[in-house]
Design goal:
alpha/beta; four-stranded antiparallel beta sheet; 8 helices; 32% helix
Length: 380
């Protein structure tokens, strides 16, 4: 407890909050984090990429290797919180809490760096770039080989509308969804609005596709299995009396199992192919698989629960529902088992909302839980 840098935790979070940087451009954030890590005793530094940083702490005794990850990137979103330490960067803000993630992991690293005699093994503190933008920074770090010796990975994400400072234990197995995206261009034939028989209307084709896609979840997915197909973009035409020659659609698809993920992709492609053909149109489709679902390991999840309860008390631990969002933390499972938990930050706007904010009183509990999870994993 005495080693937790409580004041610095808030100072670090507010500095990062005021100076946000979007995915793959976290140059100043990376330098700031690296500077703090270099000031800590017993800490080694590794740079697996241009804007990612890993702090490595070796204990006094040999043992296992564990990693804890925080993401550092912000969103291309104008902040509307009115906070005195609001973002100084126009149209960029930490509206998903990555500033809190980074500050907490810095505080965790600071705390543990002062107690090497109590550490049996090696700890990797991963400060990751580009969680928000596929293909994601986690995949870069995994492919770099920097973490090949890690035996287990932990991560924590702040979530609003859960009690501040309470730790949410996500389900074993699918703890988040996989995300895929498609970009579709329907190519019709332009015409005057008064002469539709001379054209092929891409809006009509697109509307038929959107309607048909609603049946994928309701008629092809096993009832109760979380799956979402959301059309987020439908653009065509510029004038009321002109039939456009093309329409553009884009969608986000969320699934939890690889079997359903493949089935949904096949159904979507078949619907697009057959409907465009039926209307006499053509199309160009870009179907982009992005993040897989986080698959929480049973043993790590159980240990995370016990560790958080031991340091905070069982009344501050709750069973969190599966996250319907997606997370590139899932890629670390390519190396070793993973355990992902959440931290409640009180009532407020959702993640990715311009008014999103963090109740800073929650952050110290986040640090306590992280420290305990790491120590328990290495010492058990």
């Amino acid at each position: 407890m005495k080693n937790i840098p409580t004041d610095d935790l808030i100072k670090w979070r507010r500095h990062i909050h005021q100076n946000p940087e979007v995915s793959f451009r976290e140059e100043q954030t990376s330098k700031y984090v690296e500077g703090i890590l270099r000031s800590l005793p017993n800490m080694e530094i590794q740079k697996p990429g241009k804007t990612s940083v890993i702090g490595i702490l070796k204990g006094a005794q040999p043992g296992k290797t564990v990693a804890f990850r925080a993401d550092m990137d912000a969103l291309p979103l104008q902040e509307e919180t009115g906070l005195p330490y609001s973002s100084k960067v126009k149209n960029v803000s930490h509206a998903c809490g990555h500033d809190a993630h980074t500050a907490m992991l810095l505080a965790t690293a600071s705390t543990l760096s002062k107690m090497p005699d109590q550490i049996k093994g090696t700890i990797y503190f991963i400060f990751q770039h580009a969680e928000e933008q596929p293909p994601g920074g986690a995949l870069d770090i995994v492919n770099s080989g920097a973490l090949k010796d890690v035996d287990a990975f932990f991560g924590m994400h702040v979530l609003p509308n859960f009690p501040a400072g309470h730790i949410g234990i996500l389900p074993v197995g699918a703890a988040s969804t996989a995300q895929d995206i498609f970009n579709l261009t329907i190519i019709g034939k332009g015409s005057h609005g008064s002469m539709p028989h001379l054209g092929i209307d891409p809006i009509v084709v697109g509307a038929a596709i959107v309607t048909a896609l609603q049946s994928v979840v309701s008629r092809n997915v096993t009832p109760g299995e979380m799956t979402v197909v959301s059309i987020g973009k439908f653009q065509s035409g510029d004038a009321p009396n002109v039939i456009a020659d093309r329409a553009e659609l884009a969608a986000s698809i969320r699934t939890t199992s690889e079997e359903t993920r493949k089935m949904v992709e096949t159904r979507i492609k078949g619907i697009i192919e057959n409907i465009t053909k039926a209307y006499g149109a053509t199309y160009k489709l870009e179907y982009i698989p992005t993040y897989p679902a986080i698959q929480n390991d049973a043993a790590l999840t159980s240990q995370a629960r016990n560790s958080a309860a031991a340091i905070l008390g069982g009344n501050q631990i709750f069973d969190a529902p599966m996250m319907t969002a997606s997370e590139d933390f899932a890629y670390y499972r390519k190396i070793a088992p993973v355990g992902f938990v959440t931290l409640g930050i009180g009532n407020g706007a959702a993640n990715h909302n311009p008014k999103f904010n963090v109740d800073e009183s929650a952050l110290q509990n986040g640090v306590k839980a992280q420290v305990q999870m790491i120590l328990d994993y290495l010492n058990n």
